[in-house]
Design brief:
The protein has 438 residues and is α+β, with helices and mostly antiparallel strands. The chain is elongated and about 145 Å long. It folds into five domains: 1-20 and 392-438, no CATH class; 30-44 and 286-356, conserved putative lor/sdh protein from methanococcus maripaludis s2 fold (Beta Barrel), CATH 2.40.420.20; 48-58 and 201-280, Efflux pump adaptor protein, beta barrel domain (Elongation Factor Tu (Ef-tu), domain 3, Beta Barrel), CATH 2.40.30; 65-92 and 169-194, OB fold (Dihydrolipoamide Acetyltransferase, E2P) (Beta Barrel); 94-158, Helix Hairpins (Orthogonal Bundle), CATH 1.10.287.470. It has helices at residues 5-18, 94-130, 135-167, 213-218, 392-400, 409-424, and strands spanning 33-39, 47-57, 60-64, 69-74, 81-82, 87-91, 170-172, 177-182, 189-190, 195-201, 205-211, 224-229, 236-244, 255-262, 273-280, 287-290, 295-297, 300-307, 312-317, 319-323, 327-332, 339-343, 354-356. The chain starts with a helix and ends in a 14-residue tail after the last helix.
Length: 438
Amino acid sequence: MRAWLPRILPGLLLLLTGCEPVSVPPDPSELIRPVRVMTVEPAAGGERVTLTGRIEAQDEVRLAFRIAGRMLERNVNVGDGVRGGEVVARLDPQTWRDAVATARADLTAARARLVETRNQFERFQTLIRDGFITRAMFDEAEQAFRSAEAQVSAAEARVRIAETELSFTELLADGPGVVTARGAEPGEVVAAGQMIVTLAREGGRDAVIDVPTRIMQQAPSGLPIEVSLNEDPRERAQGLVREVAPQADPVTRTFRVRVGLIDPPPALRLGSTITAAAVLGEDAGGLLIPAAALTTSNAQPAVWVLDPESMTVELRNVAVTRYDLAQVAIAHGLAIGETIVTAGVQTLRPGQQVRLAGGVALPAAAPPVAPEQGPDARPVPAPSPAEPGPTADETEAAAEDADPESGSAADTDLAIIGRVATATGLHRSAPARLDASR
């Protein structure tokens, strides 16, 4: 029986080594959670409102041909600067040249007819004085002369129209500016009025912002607005409201407002993203805190107040007087200098101990914070003090001195294995059971 003991003993030891005690994860409510905090400070006078917008030209025109035709060339592209009177695009002029030639030919014929009728009318004037023609013949000659004069005038007008339409085959810029968009390519047949290029004229810049209804109702007329570039807030300019849309956008329910900029720097280019800031009212009233710090308790607004000494939090109801875009104004419930939690408010409970996020050390009185582990890591319990087990020599001696008559060989082997497990500090979560008959 003892012959197989040396062969199975290493396997049993390996099996016992894998039997670790099942640890119960700690209660989440007992964890020391990291939070971000801020100190309540008095609000500055007036409510500061910031909105995002973009830079556009004060005047933007969509250049188009007045006549239809096949476009042969477009001389500018997006981003190109143009001068006043510069040719932007051209249509195929052949049809309109033919129209001019036809109108001029009609004018020549009308002038020849006019000369003929004028000469006849002048002759008839002499003949009627001498009585050689009747009055009816004279009236007929005069009528033909007057009709020829009208035909010449009409032909001259048709020539002018044809020449004007021929000039419409060239699209000219009506002023200096920058091309911001194109609507047709060379070779296309364009219709009259179809946009060829969009030209942002020089001479002014607007900051275009979408303003909510609440701010529209509170903003007075002539409110100064400060506009700064998002990429570089040092690039800024002052402006005044120049145009307000009379109707709200049907989708966003905001009003389009154009702010005329006064001497904008070159960095405020067309299409740049800007931030428009303005101060509404004389006094904001109450204390301003971030909207992320607000939660609810008993269906009322509340905030978590931190006790710096014990590093515990308390849920306190507050009275909110105004909800802004990113802040809320508190009338009462907080005092200046108190510390409130601004991030992590959804996982807190009254009296819970917290720690400051961002590597801020806890007070000395607070218990040490265990290092953070991965989601699959399990805490290893500290080994409890135990009596020293027998040495390897004692185990071997016990195996040699075992009395075969005091029990079966299997029982003796089990006793030896148990003593070895105790000596190595191994414990099983459930009592092992071996079949002695095996």
